[in-house]
Amino acid sequence: MRLELPHDSWAELREPDEIPRKAARQFRKVLYRLAAPARDLDPDLDAEAQALAVGQAMLSSDDGMDGVEELAEAMLLAAVSEWSYGAVCQAVLDDMPDKAVDMIYGACQAGGYIEKLMPDFGGSADEDSPTKPS
Prior knowledge:
This protein has 134 residues and is mostly helical. The chain has helices spanning 21-35, 47-60, 64-79, 90-95, 98-110, 113-117, and strands at residues 2-5, 9-13, 80-83. The protein has a 3-stranded antiparallel beta sheet. A hairpin with a 3-residue loop joins β1 (2-5) and β2 (9-13). The chain is globular, with a radius of gyration of 17 Å.
């Protein structure tokens, strides 16, 4: 999908299911680091309370908001296959206008990229899988 950006710039976004594994792993690496303070949560919390506790732990970690921004940038670098700014890399992203970055980030949020990049630790429906539901 081609996204038109300000000043005749553009970004080409991959389909969420076409994100390279290496890029997805980089996103999850940042996510795991940020979520580490939440690893000792009470397992009896309901899903909403767990999500709130994880979010609070992430924001109160040493990385705090910098880590959240790093996570967003990892998503952008995973989603973009090419753009008019040059190589798709952190150095180029750091020099891009905020408005363009915000537009790409918004398209990623709306396009399901976050959900695609999140790990799935659920059981498999495959009868031969060791993680099949019991």
